Amino acid sequence: PTKPRRESSVAAWVNVIYGCNEHCTYCVVPNTRGVEQSRPMESVRREMEELGALGFKEVTLLGQNIDSWGRDMHPKRKFSDLLHHVADTPGVERIRFVTSHPRYISERVVDAVAEHPSLMEYFHIPFQAGDNEVLRNMRRGYTRERYLHVIDRIRRRIPEVAISADVIVGFPGETEEQFEQTLDLMRQVKFDCLITAAYSPRPHTPAATWPNQLPDDVKEDRLRRINELAAQHAYERNLRYLGRVEEVLVEERNVKNPTQVMGRTRGNRLVFFDGDIAELRGRMVPVRVTEVRPYSLTGRIERGEEPFHYCESGLRRPSESRRGRERGRGGSS
User: Fold this and answer.
1) Among 70, 169, 210, 319, which one is least packed by beta carbons within 10 Å?
2) Burial letters for 126-157: b for 16+ Cβ neighbours within 10 Å, e otherwise?
3) Strands (E), the chain
């Protein structure tokens, strides 16, 4: 079992798979955490039920390579099997999972997210670099074309999905042209959020011993440029929320403004709005977004308003689908 997030009484983390069988040339995880070990789905479900009974409303399933869950079992299981098994956990209204691997994420996982309202329309899928030679040197096991195909497939199935990623700049031997390929991939995808890092050698990893390390000033310049583009894309993606009523799960008081509370949308966007934390903590609140920034939103409570719900064809309000059913039965609109 794992411990809930200590700073939250609303959202918790649950480990579902430990270790990693990948051998990326920059990463220490296989050496420090060992091979993959999946937790039985009954154990995961039981822990989630305990968290739901304690009042936790959101659970994030954790794994270094979460799509590998079940492949060490006999017989083998699929991560999508686990998602279907836990989707209706009593008390847990929101479920997220991290981290997805471009090499292993399957259509079955995407389908599960599209089918279950409790599974949030949010994927974290690191791409690490946009150049195929750099990806080979990293030993990532996929190409930029494969990555773009994965993103396209998810967005076709779930148009309003939010996608975040990790990227490393200044990997040993990375040329300016190869770095430009990373910027080009970013322009094609336009991530909702991007976690960036300049390459830093780690002990007992192959890349740390290579002679073609880049100077710090080159890495710092590329990190600055990539952060600027990431912020621009995050802002552009957030513009779609402006004026929309979003379902926000309230987590805590805004420490910078005690009259405000903070929570997250289904797409994991941080939202601030006026409210009493004693009244609202742990509640789902409809919030109209009135201001957007690259990495957060501001809004106001819209009592009586229903938030937009996501579906394959795009956005709709729950009341719209109900009115359609009532008209089909001969009811009034």
Assistant:
1) 319
2) bbbbbbbebbebbebebebeebbebbeebeee
3) 11-15, 17-18, 37-38, 58-62, 94-98, 122-124, 162-169, 193-198, 245-253, 260-264, 270-274, 284-292, 297-301, 309-311, 314-316
pTM of the model: 0.90
Q: Facing residues of 11 across strands? A: 58
- Whole-angstrom Cα distance, residue 16 to residue 37? 9
Q: How do residues 49-59 score in pLDDT, each as one tens digit?
A: 999 999 999 99
Three-class DSSP category at 66? helix
φ, ψ at 284 (rounded to 5°): -85, 125
In whole angstroms, what is the distance from residue 180 CA to residue 202 CA?
A: 25
Q: 123-132: per-residue pLDDT in tens?
A: 999 999 999 9
Q: What region does 239 belong to: left with phi over 0, alpha with psi -120 to 50, or beta?
A: alpha
